[in-house]
Amino acid sequence: NWHLKENARDHHTSKFSSKELIVRRGQAFIVTFNGTEQPEQNLTFIAETGPKPSKLAKTQATFGISSTVSKESWSAVLQSTSSNSVSISIYSPPNAVIGRYKLSVQSTSSDSSSPASLGTFVLLFNPWSSGDDVFMPNKAECEEYVLEEFGIIFAGNKNHISSFGWNFGQFQGDILNICLSMLDRSLNYRQDPATDLSHRNDPKYLGRVLSAMVNANDDQGVLLGNWSGNYTGGKSPSSWTGSGEILQNWKKSGFKPVRYGQCWVFAAVLTTVLRCLGIPTRTITNFSSAHDADGNLRVDEFYDASGNHLDRAADSVWNFHVWNESWFSRSDLGPSYSGWQVLDATPQEESGGIYQCGPASRNAIKEGDVDLDYDCPFVFAEVNADCMYWNYDPATGKKTLIFSKSTIIGQFISTKAVGRDDRVDVTNDYKYEEGSTKERDIFKKARKKLGLEDKFDPTAPTPQEIDQKPDISGKFKVAGPLEVGKDLNLILVLANLQSDAKTVHVNMTAWSTVYTRRPVHEIWKDSISVILSPKEEKQFPIKIPYPEYQQQLTTDNTIQVTALCHVEGGIQVLVQRDITLDNPAIDIQVLGEAKVNKEVDVEVIFTNPIDMELMDCVLQVEGNDLLRGILEIDVPPLKASEKSSTKFKLIPFETGPKHLLVNFSCDKFAAIKTFKMVNV
User: Fold this and answer.
1) 566 is catalytic
2) Would residue 659 show up in a list of annotated catalytic residues for this protein?
3) Counted domains in the chain
4) Residues 479 and 562 occupy one common structural domain
5) CB 363, CB 336: distance < 8 Å
6) Does Metal-binding appear among the keywords (predicted)?
């Protein structure tokens, strides 16, 4: 008798829906044997995991019954006996290898008998146990970062932060088995299974391996990335609402990469896998996130004379980027680097020859200790790189610096609050205050450690270029709602900073982009010439009608507007703004009280805000403990301004606060998302 209920309760594993024992390391579990004639002291247990268990690799343990628990090794203590049964408490060490174990028992009194198999159990990390590398002293944080299946992911851009719900679903049906098979499909396991298994007691090892396995690069991992704006042959990254469907699809297809992922999908799936295995994990969104491809802590962007953002540099600045933080100690670096560690499963740059990233200690990033393992220079650049904007002439290959900025990158770094659906800003945990001397000192320290201070860089701007002062300033102001389906109204504001008149020729463009700010389609362009009197400020209204951008918009709803100002007798001035348009709202109503095993009606209401018909309307609904799997409902076409109401039934099967996630898409709007908390 494995005492599934009691053991699961004691080990915080009750949410797994499994007929198998699932326990956490460094903590005892109880088993009872019936019909044992043997005197208990003659029993020897064998716990083993992996294809070639060995004592040396810590994948096999043999232990008898002792009077007290050993904290360093596997042990068994007698709990109680009756005439025909014996209850034994089995203890695993806090640094045991995690995974699926086979438990056998052998009688020592008769040498001939071979061990009798008692069955299998799964051993996980234990953030509730002070001896574990993943120990998290705050219980509310354990609840959130290990047991919570609902998350909120932040997106949009630094001027306009939006958010959507996500169903991590780490305790759903087959997810634990899929996570374990993910470990057995890694390159490390394929190259050397015994060594790989012996490292599975180490969260930093598993975090790194799994950051590689969640992307399909190198190893036929879970998700194939696609940032083209064209997602035929798969699901658009913005249409997913949870990790369960992705992981199940990966398994169902015989472990072929699922199409398609972008950063938040990679991060959400990695959160699911790590929480499932017991490593406290959360998603982090960094706004204006640098992708520094060449490791010089500088990001270069190029614009042509017309103001078009040229897609010619390996470097880029994303509107936002989502990665993970996992909580564990860093015995390799020392206690001051323990705590939150950055892991990133999005395939951006290779590390050690494959697409994996981390764990990078968050404290090391803040202190500029970029020489420490793993991938600190890349993560440091994501939140700290300097930005250089260049004018590039494709005909001559000549580039001229327009301006450089050191305060743009790494803003409003965000994560979900513990126990609440709110945003928490963690920017100060990544860096000292922008513009402070401490922040600049750390940046210099990092450059020095990377050997960038002493090296001549022919691609860097000269001090003269950096110091040049523009004659005018400019900015784009928003003048109206930023919503898909409405005209986009902006104002270009130009101000003469000098006491003599200036003639300015302005070339303006608007492009649809993906959230990485990669230009996809030109939407609009215009040019004007203006004379600005001394110290004069002028405003120029810009209107881009919905029909003009509707066809070109990507599922990210992002538009980059640029004005390149050629000032006669002065230096060029670049004005730009990234616009993220909001989707129209969708509303969920729960009609009546939600009770366990009782039907409750839910209504989803959507009004078509545009004067065109909406076709191919599909509603997708999911929510842990509210419904099994994903509900897909085809919604009839919606005429201009028409309101639709879609009703469906739920039968909740657990009490407590649950989250219902809804995703509505049609031919004109991609992935309109919302969620509602349902108290069952």
Assistant:
1) no
2) no
3) 4
4) yes
5) yes
6) yes
